[in-house]
Amino acid sequence: MNSLWIAANIVRRMIGNRKGFLFLIIIPVVVISFITLLFSSSTSGPIQIAYVNLDQGKLGAMTIEDLQYTNKYVMVQLQNEKDIKEQLISRTIGAAFVIPASYTEQVQNGMVDPITLYRLSETVESFTLQMNLENTTQQWILATQAAVDSQKANTVMLTEQAQQIQLDELYRQLKQHQISTITTKLDIPNNEGLTTIVGFMLLFLMGSISSAVTAIVEDRNLHTMARIYTAPVRSYEIAAGNFIGSFGVGMVQVMLTLLTTTYLLGYDYGVGFGPLFIMLTLFMLASMGIATAVAGTVKTASQVSIINNLIVTPTCMIGGCFWPLSIMPDFMQKIANFVPQKWVLEAVTNMASGDTLWQMGMPIIILILFAAIFLSFGAVILRPAER
User: Fold this and answer.
1) Which of 35, 116, 161, 264 is at 20 to 30 A from 135, Cα to Cα?
2) Which pTM value belongs to this model?
3) What are phi and psi of 262, to 5 degrees?
4) SS3 of 174, please?
5) Of all residues in the chain, what percent are helix, strand and coil, respectively (each to 5)?
6) Residue 179 confidence (pLDDT) above 50
7) CA-CA distance, 154 to 152, in Å (whole number)?
8) What's residue 169's pLDDT?
9) Side-chain half-sphere exposure of 207, counting CA atoms within 13 A
């Protein structure tokens, strides 16, 4: 019961006034709603696809021509992978791919390195592009194998040059597209910008938790905790009150944001309201653990802004809240495994692609471990009796 009184006091201090309610509730909801509207209003026309063709043979160029035939993509040639990453970050292109060197030779040998695909988020268009690339590669491999089998069955041995001419002719016939296709519009949610929208939710959630750290540190500096401790209130009740109060503020922020974007703006996350809310709740617990650990080490409230700059924004950047992890260097992608944002975004993206919440065992376990370890550490070092 004592914890609930402390929690209510925390909530009142954080969002019980105009300034707190504006910065912790209204502004996050408005900003995320604005981002949602930007992605919801995107056009459904051909998307710009960049490519880098490193292949010295014919099949690399023929693969690109095969994609252009669909009229679904506007193909943009770039020089290297660095240019691809710059174009993706600036959102000039929707996706990109790199055809590896010796692609033609690898196809003819039956051992092909996969075509590297870059995308900002998992969307229907990027998934379709991946399938087209895989199907085209498989088509070349089957055609090559058919030519080899035909040659083995032929009693007249052809020269290597004649075999290559025969193979080129087979490739040319495959490119004739004699079978037409019918496009059917499927009722699949458009998840363009999903990681960006959820990423900003995580950023604002950590910001509200940072405000809770400020309240905790102020209580310690003003000896409010010490005075509470002189009453018949135990240390764990004080810690629990701060946890519950911070959690309550985060819950209000999450609920209003999800309700506004889902029901008012009509954005389809591709994830059920319940699973998405559960993943954000687990992230809140992990963030509270980190904030509580910080509160036990920070001595003054003025240091909270420094901690905010050193923890909140950098971890959101590393975790993939602002750009996809795939465009980051390998060592940065490994570091991302140590921040909770990465696991939330991975779980949400996978669920939007068709997985269920019960298949998100690894992200859920890691987020729970984040929360348990840091909350336990924070509860130990948060000493209310200190003056």
Assistant:
1) 161
2) 0.65
3) -80, -50
4) helix
5) 70, 5, 25
6) no
7) 5
8) 61
9) 16
